[in-house]
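Weekly structure sync, notes
Attendees: PL (lead), two postdocs, one rotation student
Agenda item 3: pending single-chain targets
PL asked that the sequence for the first pending target be pasted directly into the notes so everyone works from the same version. It is reproduced below exactly as submitted, 151 residues in total.
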Amino acid sequence: MAGIELLEDVLLEAGSIDSFFGRQIPVDLWRARKVKSDAPLFELVETESEGRRGAPRKPDITIKNDWVYVRNRPRGISTFDRPNIFKGQWEYYKLPAGTVLPKGLVVVRDSYNPLFDATHHTIAPESDMPLFRFKMLLNLLAQQIEQRKAI
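Predicted structure, written out during the meeting:
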């Protein structure tokens, strides 16, 4: 598997290894989904699109030839360390601290967002992998999370 990069190695090289938590979620994290949405909990935005009010919505991941790459951002699914950060009607799904992610997924602390008074974390692939595999792993995680009641 020459050429496959591990996200842990990428962060170590960048001097950001302290933001890498492997498969274990370090703090309670929250994933938001619109109340009336029937989209998957961890639906990926794969290409840039026009968001609300005409602003561009960047993709969640870097894809090339149906592979997800960890070298550059964006790297995965957004979560925050507190619920109720968005305006409007959202439901929040808790990923409790200590939860072990499916093998192939890792969590990375990105940065504090003063607008939301919350720290952003990403659920990312642990290495470069086929897009279908990343989606499969996210679906496994969603099944675990959705069994718990949304608040």
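Discussion points:
- Residues 7-146 form one domain.
- The CA atoms of residues 76 and 124 lie 5 Å apart.
Action: rotation student to compare against the earlier draft before next sync.
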